[in-house]
# Entry
Amino acid sequence: MYKKIILIVFVGLVVFSAIYALTGKKKVTTNSDKAYQLYLAGEELTRKLYYSDAIPKFEKAIKIDTNFAMAYAMLANMYYMFDEKDNAMKLIDKAVLLFPKITEKEQLIINNIKGVIYNDMEFTEKNREKMIQKYPKSLEGYQFKASDYQMKHDFVNAIKEYEQLLKNYPDYALAYNMLGYLNYYQRNFDKAITNIKKYSIMAGKQANPHDSYGEILMYLGRYDEAIKEFEKANKIKPDLYFVLNHLGDVYREIGRFRDAIGYYERARDMATNKLQVIEADIEIAFTFWRENKNDKALNILDEALDFKIGCVSSIILKGNALMLQGIIWAQNKEFEKAIANLDSIESLMANDELRKDEGKLNSIQIYRTLLSGTIALNKKDYNKAIDDFQFLIDNSQLPSVLWFRQLLGNAYNLSGNFEKAKECYMANLADNSNHPLSLFQLAQVYKNLGDIENQKQMLLKFLSVTSGADESFVDVIDARKQLDSLVQLQIEES
# Structure
């Protein structure tokens, strides 16, 4: 399934990191030492991604000092992340009114947050450019430059900015976190692990370093190690929404669907807003679909889609749910329903607020193309399916590209082009040597090519990776049957 990259979290970290730079130099404007200490405590919690715990700190800070602009801005950012946009706008407007009382650097930081809350990307970019020009050697200057490069998918220069940042700010642990992800996107897997390990050592008593380490390990197919890191994160700070989601992801990947659903349900229970509830429901539906329980998946999606579109993030979730529902209908040969969902996704793309944000507009485009390709595949229009899936590969990055390559390989396999299908799966295994779907489907390709020995090897590795899978996992059942048949054939031949 197409998983959103951590760009939203990344942008959030950039904002919090810039504010951290201000506080570290004691340049936040407030008349109260007590309010300042509360602010620092809240800021520390945001850098750990403990957002729910941070909110009361900022609320208390502005009660003590009603002219504390940066505290209003941070609280506004928290409310925005929790889908309380109206409250966020009121708070950020209050912060802006206090501009005559604060420094220019604080003003630039606040305007950056304002641009995000008001979904005015042009305004945000102008303020970020001002920050970079005015303070090029500051921590926040490096952060914003790296962020700009990442959003343009220029990971090479983003890496250079973080490496330069660390030369000047060697104790800044979060830079190692971002270098870990950026090197992963560049397929510098050893460097990715080295940087994430460094982050987990420097900030080991926080949950996020272990969660990040687990995420990279999961993407590389080191599933048992990933589970251990996610469990460490969950022990340090129990029931963080994103950690619970990652535990669901890794268990689903290896066919442990009951465990996956349990973690997604727990994440749902710990959700801080309606959008997180819907997101968790979509993950549960996707898990039921992977388990071949389409009726359960459709029931959940029917409920998940019963919400009104508000902010841009809600449009993304609506598109995601429509895509998955459409995929199931296409596979059930209910093409009219699937095409209706395709039309609905295209209607979402016309939303004025969405069109202001190129990154989120691209997400909807991905959902539309993925559903379009799946409809074509199930109609046996393989050329159209191949074109759509290739488009997704060309316009995506790791780890999403693994899913899209698997779909492309399936389209080639069904069309009879077994060598091209093999290329797709081999490319996936180069990025994740234990990718279960690729192992299983490559075995089918080898079967079609009459390569019994390699078919057997892929099946054995697939069953090894999914050794703890639910007994009802249809791919595991099929793999065992195939392996038994191959063994019996070898016995008969001998």
Summary: DSSP finds 27 helices and no strands in the chain.
